[in-house]
Write a structure and sequence with these properties.
seven-stranded mixed β-sheet, D-Maltodextrin-Binding Protein, domain 2, Sugar ABC transporter substrate-binding protein, 2 domains, alpha+beta, SBP, single chain, Bact_solute-bd_prot1, three-stranded antiparallel β-sheet
Length: 434
């Protein structure tokens, strides 16, 4: 864990202490690390509000945020939350609405936020509970130079069968290079983020519209076995413990020819100091039975309802999610590193388009993602790469552990999904009775 008082010494607890100090709990993704570096010399300098960041890996930060916000202790004012958590966090009254503190700020320009995110961050009561820091879908990224050297062609809209064939041909194309990198690290937001999109496009689903679990159904099984076989045969070393960060490192370091993951990775791959800048191609998420399969996700900011510093928290969010902040990142770090995917104006910016060759593929994927109908059958809850219910975090993580073991060669997909079916049906039965 990294705890940093961005203004230097001091800081103070969010539950008390300095009235001009807030505590922010967030995931350790590259965009957040950039924010941490830029806050003191810009936001704090302009407002006098000190920001103390606690930065944790994805699985760890999810657990800590859940613990902190459910207890409403008020230790943290702001946290990085997603379009998965915010609907039921708001329903549980763990969050403070942002309609008056952020959305009505004319400098913020709420109308510029992509409608899909405003909708997904609005509670059942019609109030807005989150503002996106950045948005993303999922893309297939590949080394254009490697493909050219090997005489390989990447389709603009590849199928998973085509990807598997390309992975076999690209394996070993350069010393130590594998054909593809796919997440294998346990966790509903790690392994199952990409894998659930594969399940969807293979015709599978976690639950049918009547809450009957379908985890060991033929389509879910076929998708999972395909994924496991692909990463075992042509994936990265140590795949069972590889998440987003590990695959990003592999791609940046030239250890993999392809990577299917978050479109937001493009900012790091195209950064000025990236060894693979300008060498990456970006195409839509691979499909099988559906026309598209990219996920819809946003890391957003939410304010704890128990926070005593909601005004200061709102000012921080209005700055961190603003066009002004995007321009700051562009001036300091380059347009490719701007936390994009949330504002229409960013995609229309010629400087961003020039620096971010992934912009068109990302925008297309975000606009085509359909959280209400991501597969071939009706669903009982919204979500592309997740099921929009509180229980999914534990369910997805539990099932992922068996699949990760199968990737490591220590178990079978069939056994993992048989256990997963039992766990999923217990969840489904709860909703059948509601």
């Amino acid at each position: 864990m990294t705890l940093t008082a961005c203004s230097g010494a001091g800081g103070g607890s969010a539950a008390g202490g300095d009235a001009n100090s807030i505590n922010v709990l967030m995931v350790n993704n590259p965009q957040m690390e950039d924010l941490q570096k830029l806050t003191a010399d810009n936001f704090t300098k302009d407002t006098g509000i000190k920001v103390n960041f606690t930065v944790l890996p994805e699985n760890d930060v999810r657990a800590k945020i859940s613990q902190e916000f459910s207890s409403q202790a008020g230790q943290y004012d702001v946290a990085s939350l997603s379009n998965y958590e915010i609907p039921f966090y708001s329903a549980n009254k763990w969050l403070a609405p942002l309609d008056d503190t952020v959305a009505k700020n004319p400098d913020f320009n709420q109308a510029d936020i992509l409608p899909a995110y405003t909708a997904s961050l609005t509670g059942k009561d019609g109030k807005l509970y989150g503002e996106p820091f950045y948005g993303e879908s999922s893309l297939l990224m590949y080394r254009k130079d490697i493909f050219e050297a090997k005489g390989l062609t990447m389709p603009a809209n590849p199928t998973w069968d085509q990807v598997a064939n390309l992975a076999a041909k690209a394996d070993g194309a350069a010393p130590g290079m594998k054909g593809i990198c796919l997440r294998g690290q346990p966790g509903w937001g790690q392994l199952f983020a990409p894998l659930t999109t594969v399940v969807n496009t293979f015709g599978g689903t976690w639950f049918d519209k009547d809450w009957n679990a379908k985890v060991n159904a033929p389509e879910f099984t076929a998708a999972t076995q395909f994924y496991v076989d692909l990463v075992r045969n042509h994936g990265e070393a140590g795949a069972a413990q590889a998440g987003f960060t590990e695959c990003l490192n592999n791609m940046t370091q030239g250890k993999t020819a392809m990577w299917y993951d978050a479109s937001s990775a493009g900012g790091s791959l195209e950064a000025a100091d990236s060894p693979v800048k300008g060498k990456i191609g970006y195409v839509q998420a691979p499909v099988k039975e559906t026309k598209s399969s990219g996920w819809l996700w946003t890391w957003s900011w939410g304010v704890q309802a128990a926070s005593k510093k909601q005004d200061a928290a709102g000012k921080f969010i209005a700055w961190a999610s603003s066009s002004k902040y995007e321009n700051l990142v562009a001036s300091k770090l380059g347009w490719a590193k701007v936390p994009s995917g949330k504002r229409s104006s960013t995609y229309e910016n010629a400087d961003f388009q020039k620096a971010a060759p992934f912009f068109e593929a990302e925008k297309t994927a975000i606009l085509n993602a359909d959280p209400k109908n991501p597969g071939v059958q009706p669903r009982p809850a919204i979500g592309v790469q997740f099921v929009g219910i509180p229980e999914f975090a534990d369910l997805g993580t539990t099932v992922s552990q068996g699949i990760s073991s199968a990737i490591a060669g220590q178990g079978s997909v069939a056994d993992a999904l048989a256990k997963g079916q039992d766990a999923a049906q217990k969840v489904g039965d709860k909703y059948k009775s509601k």
